[in-house]
Design brief:
six-stranded antiparallel β-sheet; DUF2252 domain-containing protein; Kinase-like_dom_sf
Length: about 400
Amino acid sequence: MANLQERLQAFNAGLLPDILKLKYEAMAENPFRFYRGTCHLFYEDVAAAAPLPLSPLAWICGDLHIENFGSYRGDNKLVYFDLNDFDEALLAPAAWELARMVTSIFIAFETLNIEPEKARNMVALYLKSYATTLAVGKARCIEPRTAKGIVCDFLEAVKQRSYKELLKKRTVSKKRRIMLSLEDERHFKVDKKLKAELIAHLQEWLKTSRDAPYNYHAESVVFRLAGTGSLGLRRYLFLLKSKSVDDHYLLIDMKECRPSSVRPHIPVQQLQWADEAARVTGIQKRMQYTSASLLSTTSFRDRSYMIQELQPVKDTLKFKLLKKSYRNLYRVIEDMGMLTASAQLRSGGIQGSSNIDDLIAFGCDDGWQQALTGYAFDAAVTFGQYYREFCEIKHTMI
């Protein structure tokens, strides 16, 4: 196998060079941020190591970790807490998803200087919650009326945010027009030619897509930074203005989709999706209880993009903020296990994924959890080594 620098450079080839520098800077922040930005390393190692415990095939988000759970508003206008990142999604053994998630618990706890014993307790709780939910065979969801503990507080807090507050942070007023702000550190100017093409493209999407909001037109666009693993992809934020309601605006995120980093390493035949954006949004719609607002796809300059509304209620539960409330973590981790199983049950039996009976049987079998935990613990140690090596060689890659 190639050395770490070669593996990182090979995977990140083709990303925007200036933004790739920012990605490497972000990955150097701490071991957990490095783990978030190197999903491909994890699955390269999975494919090269002794096999994980046998498990049924399931639709997986592919990059499941503790900060890929969060809030969003569904197309039914209600707010949910659920899995929220599907860039790497595909059909795979369920244990691959669990190994990625459990490894993230070990790495996050070490990053926060929480004792290893407590990390193991949380891993056991996550897997128990996952298995129990599978064994029951019924998918569940979390929204403000059913949420408890920190997740309840989190959802109630995001519900209080308004579009006015979001617009105030993201926009400025110029000559009586509302425009996207370039003072926001996450926004970058788009050159004149590209800007004109993007505006024209989105105008066409608004006219022709059944997923587009009714009677809006595009006012402005900026390049947008977000996430860790997705830094370096082409990503744009549009401001839309209503033609029928005075002073009413929407923010639309348009994000480039690349092939899943899991795909080269998975010995499972995949569906032939129309393009990568169709894969991402298609699997997201299968796994989430309700689809995110305005979730759609488009193609621009021969690249596929997913489109969705940028919402005031969309947020990720930041794990490092929970360190002071360790006891409250039990409820959060338990919820994450339930949501992982629910997403697999919800999409079970669809185009190659195992049926509900097979998922129930896997949940009732307690013979795989110890082996998976051991694999994840070793993987966390390996990623600690990768992180330290990366910090030493980063300057040669920027």
